[in-house]
């Protein structure tokens, strides 16, 4: 088990963390690229998904987007982008080699959980609530901003949270095409038979992933406008309708 | 002789000559891909079912089992596989275990959900008819839970096909090995062929499961499935 002691040595030596291509710098790069892609995906996905949900449509879109996202391997898409004439391996500002290809792939893979959850969230707002809003004389826009969006927001947020986990995972895969981020520590270690280093990189990536998930869950709980209390029947109903898409979405998160 | 469509000069995305010349290599990679995927999913089903039953029986364990599976799916695949290497080495077993763990997170949830969807009245009627717990599970609850469970199995299988490509980090990635090589050598035909085969494989396995489900649930035919 010398591999494990090599791993420990790599993790505990200061030189693996600091300096050019140290793990701290790579981690910063991967966080930057993940946040950029997540924001892009929200910018593209949320308006479409919410608008279609407001119209009571988009079910087919949501299902298809998820299915395609699940069946296309992240690695294959990244590889195709990198070998193509555009975007290729060109570096993109602080995002490093193959930065543009990585951002495009990450954005695409963040879309399914965002679109599906946001769309389902708005469509599942109970018809009696909508009728009440109509009865109060609300216009379509008022109904959306004051009724549908607040009620839908927990599920919309959980979609964004799943997308964050997804994006971090996909950003790790970028290393398989010599792209940016912490995954490079893993691939470097394995390609140069320095397994201790590779496993050390894996430990750091996994720990950061778990931390991100925990932080996102805490933020989501803090921002939830509808306090979760169990027992009342309408809320239980909401919880159940939220259950089905969650199950489907887990798979998307696994699609890295 | 005119250069083939996969020569360095042309490097075309689609190339029949490549399929012909490298047939053995492509077939081998595909077979490896199918083997790894199928074994991983089967192992996962065998582990997930008792876990789901246990979680249903002992509610206190449920939160633990579901929490652990959430933690597993949070870990990126490129990190999970290396973490297994100290124990299982650079082998296909490493990939199979890693993929089975991911599939487990989907399967346990869908199995629990499927069993929960069986109405309490149905369960009581079965008991009233004299069904013991085991026979009730096999003859009444499982058939009714099947559609939800099969939906989970489809999701797990399709994701596993895609994830197998990452196994290339330990050199057992099936078609992922061709994708890796395609990136390293800037070989477009190889890359495109392997990527399309991956997607095709996912579709074929998905259809196989849908077909199996159709055969297993004859009572749903003719009516709209739930």
TrEMBL record, chain A:
InterPro entries named in the record:
ABC_transp_perm/SBD, MetI-like, MetI-like_sf
Q: Where in the cell is it found?
A: Cell membrane; Membrane
Q: What is its main location?
A: membrane
Q: Which residues form the ABC transmembrane type-1 domain?
A: 27-216
Keywords assigned by UniProt?
Membrane, Transmembrane, Transmembrane helix, Transport
Recorded hits in SUPFAM superfamilies, A to Z, give:
MetI-like
Q: Please, which domain of life does this record's source organism belong to?
A: Bacteria
Which residues are listed as membrane-spanning? Answer: 31-53, 59-83, 95-115, 163-186, 198-219
Q: Does the keyword Metal-binding apply?
A: no
Gene3D superfamilies from the UniProt entry = MetI-like
Look up keyword Membrane and say if it applies. Answer: yes
Q: How does the UniProt record describe the way this protein sits in the membrane?
A: Multi-pass membrane protein
Query: What does the similarity note say?
Result: Belongs to the binding-protein-dependent transport system permease family.
State the protein's name.
ABC transporter permease
What is the organism of origin for this protein?
Answer: Nocardioides mangrovi
Recite the lineage of the species.
Bacteria, Bacillati, Actinomycetota, Actinomycetes, Propionibacteriales
């Amino acid at each position: 088990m010398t591999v494990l002691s090599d791993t420990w040595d790599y993790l505990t030596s200061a030189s693996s963390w600091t300096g050019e291509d140290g793990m701290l710098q790579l981690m910063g790069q991967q966080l930057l690229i993940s946040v950029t892609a997540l924001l892009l995906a929200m910018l593209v996905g949320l308006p479409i998904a919410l608008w279609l949900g407001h119209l009571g449509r988009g079910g087919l879109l949501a299902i298809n987007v998820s299915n395609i996202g699940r069946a296309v391997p992240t690695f294959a898409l990244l590889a195709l982008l990198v070998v193509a004439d555009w975007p290729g391996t060109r570096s993109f500002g602080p995002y490093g080699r193959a930065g543009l290809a990585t951002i495009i792939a990450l954005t695409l893979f963040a879309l399914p959980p965002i679109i599906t959850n946001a769309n389902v969230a708005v469509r599942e707002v109970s018809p009696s609530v909508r009728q009440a809003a109509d009865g109060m004389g609300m216009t379509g826009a008022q109904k959306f901003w004051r009724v549908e969006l607040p009620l839908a927001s927990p599920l919309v947020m959980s979609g964004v949270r799943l997308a964050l986990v997804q994006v971090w995972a996909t950003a790790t895969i970028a290393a398989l095409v010599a792209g940016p981020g912490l995954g490079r520590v893993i691939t470097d270690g394995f390609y140069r038979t320095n397994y201790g280093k590779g496993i050390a990189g894996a430990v750091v990536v996994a720990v950061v992933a778990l931390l991100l998930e925990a932080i996102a869950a805490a933020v989501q709980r803090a921002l939830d406008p509808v306090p979760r209390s169990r027992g009342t029947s309408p809320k239980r109903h909401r919880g159940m309708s939220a259950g089905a898409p969650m199950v489907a979405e887990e798979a998307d998160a696994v699609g890295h | 002789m005119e250069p083939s469509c996969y020569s360095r000069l042309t490097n075309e995305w689609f190339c029949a000559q490549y399929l012909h010349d490298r047939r053995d290599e492509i077939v081998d990679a595909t077979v490896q891909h199918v083997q790894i995927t199928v074994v991983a999913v089967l192992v996962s089903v065998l582990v997930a079912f008792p876990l789901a039953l246990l979680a249903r029986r002992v509610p206190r364990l449920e939160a633990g089992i579901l929490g652990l599976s959430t933690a597993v799916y949070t870990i990126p695949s490129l990190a999970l596989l290396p973490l297994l290497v100290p124990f299982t080495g650079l082998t296909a077993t490493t990939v199979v275990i890693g993929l089975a763990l991911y599939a487990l997170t989907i399967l346990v949830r869908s199995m629990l959900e499927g069993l929960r969807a069986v109405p309490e009245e149905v369960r009581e009627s079965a008991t009233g008819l004299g069904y013991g717990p085991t026979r009730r599970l096999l003859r009444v609850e499982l058939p009714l839970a099947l559609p939800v469970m099969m939906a989970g199995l489809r999701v797990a299988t399709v994701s596993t096909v895609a994830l197998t490509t990452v196994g290339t980090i330990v050199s057992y990635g099936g078609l992922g090995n061709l994708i890796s090589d395609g990136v390293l050598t800037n070989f477009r035909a190889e890359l495109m062929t392997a990527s399309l085969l991956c997607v095709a494989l996912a579709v074929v396995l998905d259809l196989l499961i849908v077909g199996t489900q159709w055969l297993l649930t004859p009572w749903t035919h003719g009516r709209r499935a739930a």
